Structures are given as structure tokens and as C-alpha cells.
Input
Amino acid sequence: MDETDGVVALDDAQCWDRLGGQELGRLVTRVGGVLDIFPVNFVVDGRSVLFRTAEGSKLFALTVNDEVLFEVDDHTDTHAWSVVVRGRAERLDTSGEVERADGLGLRPWIPTLKYNYVRIVPTAVSGRAFARAPEPDRYGVQPY
Output
């Protein structure tokens, strides 16, 4: 950990370990000049991220521009972390892909039918971990 700011970069394995322990992330899409962010529940499948979606704005955005960001974070009273996956989203379209994805246990959190599986194939993964502590006194005498 960098002693000066309490932040440490996570390596790929640490990023994927943290992603694998979570179920909720945020998908960022861009269509033209419009950015959107969507909360999605997901599973990690090897070194990719899978989520399900219904027909609608997410799926439309991914067909217009498949470049996405996906972010997951978590925290406790003493530690926090954030992982960002940059990549391309691809809809699973063969029966074999969908059947395999069905076996991963990914279920919608709300009672809606979501027939479309989307895989985020990463081009880059990065993460940072933070040690949480009180803010230093900004106005008092600082030690040398």
C-alpha cells in the first residue's frame, strides 16, 4: 500500500477475486454523446462478466455501441475497493452459449423475464483498494 495516500493498485487476480465475490455492479453505456449507467446483477464466468437483460434501453445501447465500462465496489468501516472492467459487450446468441449460461445460476432480482444474456469481454481490468481512516486535521499544525 502506498503510505502517502492509503491506496493500492490491485492486480488482475485480485480484481477478479473481488468481482467474483459480488452480485451487483454498474454498467456504463454510451450512445452518441449520451452516457447511461444501469445497476445489474451479474456473475463472473472465467475472466468475463455475464448479466441478463430484457429488451429495452440497455440492450439497444449495446447494439449501437458495444464498448462498455462495468464497475463494482464494496466497503467496510476500515477498507474499501473498486474494480473497473473496460470491454465489449456481446449478446449470447447460440443455444449452446445460452444453455451454458443458464447453468451459472444467474437469476433476475426482480420478477421480470430477462431472456437475453450479455457477456462483457474485457479489454482491461483495473482496481484499487483503500484503507479508510479519519481525515487528517486540515487546519491544525502538521507533523514534519
Remarks:
- The chain has three helices and seven strands.
- The first helix runs from residue 12 to 20.
